[in-house]
Amino acid sequence: EPEVTQTPSHQVTQMGQEVILRCVPISNHLYFYWYRQILGQKVEFLVSFYNNEISEKSEIFDDQFSVERPDGSNFTLKIRSTKLEDSAMYFCASKKQGASTDTQYFGPGTRLTVL
Amino acid sequence: AQKITQTQPGMFVQEKEAVTLDCTYDTSDPSYGLFWYKQPSSGEMIFLIYQGSYDQQNATEGRYSLNFQKARKSANLVISASQLGDSAMYFCAMREPGGGSNYKLTFGKGTLLTVNP
User: For residue A96, what is the nearest residue in chain B, using CA coordinates?
Assistant: First the structure.
């Protein structure tokens, strides 16, 4: 069964450093998302991406964040200059084109720790 | 703004018994969808079940069923015949109304279910 994959599973970085989180969505999916979950809190929407552009972004997704689909398979989230409060689990999700009832399938997450 | 409320931070159930996890939601839009996801201790988010606001029947997926009460704005997850592997965090989520195919999800705070042997 196809699944969303994410690398790395755990990333440790120093405050102020750039990080790139990688995701490979399910191959026939066309909508892509990033969510984050700060430890012990609920999952929050960051950004949605379709047709090579951002569809919607939350207030969390400020100028320090960017997303890219550099080729036909990868979908990346870049944090330009990490802050302590960026420490969280980051989930990539994808959905196939179609009805609004279609499910978003999540990857296993990348745990980002900013020191 | 839409809102999802899960009032049970933690629940305990004996193996082989059924358990209900509560979820209430708030929206004024007639078209919406509700999802349940399971998050084991390993961290991944696993889709369990979906209920659309116009669906005539309650959704079922194996041991999972959704007790959808539209007038009460509740979408409780029922797990029958609990197994030890059901121990996890469970999140209720709502598809943003009117978002079309490209929707974002709003999540509740989750309920931590522990299944006792």
Answer: B101
Contact A99, A44 (CB under 8 A): no
Pull the structure tokens for residue A106.
Answer: 């999540």
Contacts of A91 in chain B (CB under 8 A): 45
What is the C-alpha to C-alpha distance for residues B67 and B51, in angstroms, rounded to an integer? Answer: 9
Q: Of A35, A99, A105, which has the smallest distance from its Cβ to B101's Cβ?
A: A99
Nearest-CA distance from B29 to chain A in Å?
Answer: 14
Please count the residues of chain B.
117
Where does chain B show beta strands of DSSP type E? Answer: 3-5, 10-14, 19-21, 24-26, 33-39, 46-52, 60-61, 64-69, 74-79, 88-95, 105-107, 111-116
β B3-5/B24-26 pair status: antiparallel
Exposure letters B60-97 (e unless 16+ CB within 10 A, then b): eeeebbbbbeeeeebbbbbbeebeeebbbbbbbbbbbb
- C-alpha span between B1 and A25 (Å, rounded): 29
Residue B28 backbone dihedrals phi, psi, to 5 degrees: -100, -5
**How far apart (Å, rounded) are the C-alpha atoms in residues A105 and B47?**
7
List, for residues B4-49, the tens digit of each pLDDT value: 999 999 999 999 999 999 999 998 888 889 999 999 998 889 999 9
The per-residue pLDDT for range A75-98, each reduced to its tens digit, is 999 999 999 999 999 999 999 877
The SS3 assignment for B47 reads strand
